[in-house]
Amino acid sequence: MKWSERAWQASQEVNQAIFSMPFITELMQGTLAKEKFVQYIQQDALYLARYGKVLAALAVKLDKVEHTEAFLGFAKDTMMVEKILHESYVGELKDLSELKASPGCMLYTNYLERQIAHAPLEVALAAVLPCFWIYKEVGDYILENQTTSDNPYQDWINTYGGEEFGSAVKKAISICDEIAEQTTGQRQEEMTAAFVMCSKLEWIFWDSAYRLEKWPI
């Protein structure tokens, strides 16, 4: 069994919780309150700005040229998604300098940046993978199960469901598996732990948007 298969298996409980959470269910049905979606895309814009930098930092640490090129491409694509969000939801997204990261968003981005700064390369790679993989699975799940033809959030759903985004996800998984094969069993366990943690942080991110999370003080 490949490392990625073991990691996905280890995070199954979290993954199932994500598929069934109110944010995803209502997004799929097109009934998600607009203010909750706006909260999400505002926080996601902040997240993607920092996530793209994490991917670029990972790229320069990779030994193989093709791996470096892939992660630089991922970082570029992340910036493009952020740009599309701004264009698609103009008026909903303020200038990023005017937004404040929610506790859930800050927890997630700080964790990723800490992995880049202090964790072994293999572990940092595993930490960024859930953002790819879970979004792909959620996008496909919604496309397969939605029943409405006029979902106001269809553009978002189409961004992450289907083959185009899927090819990037497969490439990211393949790189992680290749690097995992070259390391020890103990390091692979550390990779899995980081993967599961970031899967949980994905749940927290969506849940915080659904709850319209604000700083209490």
**How much strand?**
under 5%
Number of strands: 0
Q: Nearest-angstrom radius of gyration?
A: 17 Å
- CATH superfamily, called what? Heme oxygenase-like
From the N-terminal CA to the C-terminal CA, the straight-line distance is: 47 Å
The level of helicity is over 70%
What attributes characterize this protein structure?
globular, Heme Oxygenase, Chain A, Haem_Oase-like_multi-hlx, 10 helices, 217 residues, Thiaminase II, mainly alpha, Thiaminase-2/PQQC, Thiamine_Salvage_TenA
Task: Describe what is shown at a glance.
By secondary structure, the protein is mainly alpha-helical.
What does this structure look like?
It comes from Myroides albus. Residues 8-211 form the Thiaminase-2/PQQC domain. This is Thiaminase II. It holds the Pfam family TENA_THI-4. This protein has 217 residues and is mostly helical. The protein has helices at 3-10, 12-20, 22-29, 34-59, 65-88, 103-118, 121-145, 154-160, 163-181, 185-210. The longest helix has 26 residues, at 34-59. It is globular. The model has no long low-confidence stretch (mean pLDDT 92).
